Amino acid sequence: MPAPAPARRVLRSAERWRAVVQASVEHDTPLGRLGLAASATGLCAVLFPEPSPRPVPLSPVPLSPVPLSPVPLSPVPLSPVPLSPVQQSPVPHSPVQQPPKPPRDASRWLAQAQRELDRYFAGRLRTFTVPLDLQGTPFQFAVWQGLRQIPFGDTLSYGALAAAVGCPRASRAVGQANHLNPVAIIVPCHRVIGADGSLTGYGGGLDRKQYLLRFESNPPPAGGSPSPHPAARASRASPAPRRD
Fold first, then answer.
1. Candidate list 189, 192, 212, 231, residue with the active-site label
2. Is 189 a catalytic residue?
3. pTM: predicted TM-score of the whole model, two decimal places
4. Sheet with strand 43-47: strands edge to edge
5. Mean pLDDT, 10 residues at a time, over the chain (244 residues)?
6. Does some domain include residue 117?
7. Residue 136 sits in which domain range?
8. CA separation (Å) from 56 to 43, 51, 53, 59?
9. Domain count of the chain?
10. DSSP three-state, residue 81
11. How many whole angstroms from its chain centre is CA 157?
12. Domain-located, residue 82
């Protein structure tokens, strides 16, 4: 079954999910509009918006007038063409095929993920419970499971995470698995920092990583609203996404 229309944007960043994604949606958050994708088993992806290209300034191109001279036209003699009657044959009517609806379970996981993200940013939720359907190697699964053990508001270095998953010398491999985490925020790869306290890298951009760490260190009162990231203001100014 081909992926639903909104899933195509999500899948551009992760071709390996094409076989499992059955439904997708875009969801507005204080960090901007996130792309969510799910299978019948669970949530597959939470991705940040793609960076918009910078506008290229265009300078006017001077145009010089081109002189046009009239072209003499001579009449063309037309002769009548005999027409024979066309035999009409009935065209069978086939029922219009409606696009398939997303599987019920996939839509259910998307709705749950949206509710939990809203509650997280409102200061009402610290641990996500939406089922996940992740695609990766055993080592990546171990790292992603280790990420889910880092408490809300805490951070861990890459070296400490490597030791926690039983590979103390694999800091670089842990960093790569962290980078390939397909479910941002819910699998909290933003809580991993350098040994010296530096933010190092983040797929959503260091500004979003810093926003999340500051938000978790000082969350709003339950029911409050955090100040939006600048990307959220830009995405909310654009048309609302279509949902399948």
1. 189
2. yes
3. 0.68
4. 23-29, 32-38, 43-47
5. 50 56 94 94 89 38 42 53 58 57 84 97 95 94 96 96 95 95 96 94 93 92 64 52 42
6. yes
7. 5-51+102-237
8. 37, 15, 9, 10
9. 1
10. coil
11. 27
12. no
